[in-house]
Amino acid sequence: MRISIDMKAFKKISVAGLLALAMLVAGCGKSDDDGPILIKFPHVTAPGTPKGQAAQRFKDLVDERLDGRVVVEVYPSGQLMSDDDSLDALAFGEVQMIAISLSKLDRLTHKFQVFDLPFLFPDLSTVERFQASQEGMSLLDSMSDKGLRGLTFWHNGMKQFGGPIPMRSPDAAVGLKFRVMESDVLQAQVLQIGGNPQKIAFGEVYQALQTGAVDAQENTWSNIYSSKFFEVQDYLMETNHGYIGYLVAVNPEFWDGLPEEIRAELDTIVNEVGVWANEQASVINEDGKQKIIASGQSEVLALSAEELAVWQDAMTPVWDQFEGNIGAEFIEAALAARQ
Ligand code: LMR
């Protein structure tokens, strides 16, 4: 069975109506008697990014181990839909798997805002320890009533700022228009340094920078390189001030309806790919950074410990603003994951 959804109309339907409809149609990707199980897996980044490579590896391992019983179709670079639309499409059974930036779950739950708090996670190892903690693991299943279950987390990497001028200090950000993901924490973080935040979908960022709709942005080296943001940003500041990672998520009705041995194999593959992807992520990001430097199109500025401390002092007041939303125990667990 296939259905097609008008996303604009979809957003106007009540939540209760949505959930009822989602329950009805969630089985759309399931096998019928005459065909394999189809997993449509859209995402927004380029094939060479940490997420692009992980999604492709998931497909390759499914091909190898499930012998045609499951077919994975990966749609990279936002060619099928935006992240925002993919949340609706997953709830409706239009697609069966997504790997969405944790920042974009803001509209479903505030708990994931912990991942956006600036300077909370100093590196990817700390993020991994937090994700493996009781609090981190509890996040996976925190949105099942909204048509989405997390299977695991995959890394991208740490974020860097880019802009039209050197930004060694947050003073330089005053008055600049910053593109941010669809996250209230990221919006508040930019307001905190006197910038003007604009929530813009990933697929529209290059053009927004090129036309001057926004002046500045934050992203990982791999995204800045593969989506060519460095071509339209004169300066990139190595701030490592925040994290981008993904929730690999499925529709609970679809997932629970799969034959048990297939679901178990898919679970194994998703987790195996997660370990592999997390090992690759830093290498892919470093490679993107070196290619940007080699291009000479954008100047990469390393910041001193003193300069970074000023950024940190300027941005961390947003922690207090969001602690009530997130729950203090999540912030404490993240702090406990530091070494
Ligand atoms: C962004 O919108 O900047 C990122 O979420 C894109 C991604 O998926 O890495």
Look at the helices and sheets and give the structural class.
alpha/beta
CA-atom Rg in angstroms? 20 Å
Strand count, sense and barrel status of the largest sheet are: 6 strands, mixed
Strand content: 15-25%
Helix content: 40-55%
Domain count, please report it. 2
Write up this protein.
With 339 residues, the chain is α/β, with parallel strands linked by helices. The chain folds into 2 domains: 163 residues, Bacterial extracellular solute-binding protein, family 7 (D-Maltodextrin-Binding Protein, domain 2), CATH 3.40.190.170; 133 residues, Bacterial extracellular solute-binding protein, family 7 (D-Maltodextrin-Binding Protein, domain 2, 3-Layer(aba) Sandwich). Helix content is 44%, strand content 17%. The protein has 14 helices and 11 strands. Helix 3 packs antiparallel against helix 11. The longest helix is centred in the C-terminal third of the chain and has 36 residues. The chain starts with 6 loop residues before the first helix and ends with a helix. Bound molecules: (2S)-2-hydroxybutanedioic acid. (2S)-2-hydroxybutanedioic acid (LMR) binds next to loops.
Quickly list its features.
single chain, 339 residues, alpha/beta, D-Maltodextrin-Binding Protein, domain 2, 2 domains, 6-stranded mixed beta sheet, 3-stranded antiparallel beta sheet, 14 helices, 11 strands, globular, binds (2S)-2-hydroxybutanedioic acid
